Amino acid sequence: MTTPGNTAARVASDVVGIAETPTCISFILALCALLWPVIIAGDNSVLCNAANEAMFAEYYKMCTGDDFYSLWDSFMATIGQLQCPLLYQFVTEKLFVGLLTKKHSVDAPRSSASSVDITISNTEKQVLRYVAGFIPHALLRRYKRYNNRTAQLYVAVLQQWKVSAVTHTHTTFLQYTEGWVNAVNRGGLFVVTDEVYLFFRAVEKVVRTTANFDQVSKGKLTGIKENIMKNLESSFLVNKYWCTIASSIANEKASIKLLETVLIYYVNLRCRSFADAYNLVTRHKDNEGASKKGEKSLRKSLN
Q1: Which comes out higher in pLDDT, residue 290 or 230?
Q2: Which domain of life is it from (predicted)?
Q3: Is residue 235 part of a domain?
Q4: Rounded-to-10 torsion of CA 240, 246, 252, 253
């Protein structure tokens, strides 16, 4: 029984046999030339999701266009094969992925050995979990004061970052980072989802690669804020996690604006208060049996 799949497999086998011929090489080069504008379609986008959206929109347009089918049909006629759209799509997708991988390997910055210790201890991760909730909590209060569509959008997004007591019943591999937050929570803390925590963890690691550990632990980062922001804005992981937690923002400019606000808030907070929060956790671990009634509000200590 002849099926489109069987036909594509047979034709593919025949094409492999002539892969080194000038005719086949010329065709592949022409197909690469057709694919390249697709590959770079998202280069002007700042966020990963916007870049991918632009690129795949162009890919779909190309694969359904007259130039694409004309190129393939002409090649098939030259090698004496019948038209096979299934093969067209399969080969083109493989070539597309290969070109994209090659481009990313060239674009990616070369990894270099670093003497900077970016290890985050379990205690620090618990501090980070709290700070990750403090920022959206503060921004929510800010944006709720405005009555415009952008502010309303930001409020909706930031509210999605919070885990409610009802939904927070499952156990994840990041549960150990919640120990301190759960211990000091009087019922009003903004407990973030794991995705939001991972975003801020990526941010913190960039901070640590920009500043040395002594600066980080003492909160002495004021002089290098500009370098920190530059590295944060160019970080692939920060970008990737942001696109996950802000995926409901369709407008790229609006998403970038909120991202910049969050990053600036974090860096400013990091410079003056992270060390203080670290000391609070240390004291809490030393006095786990003490009453919470006399404790100073954690948010007040960060303001």
Answers
A1: 230
A2: Eukaryota
A3: yes
A4: -110
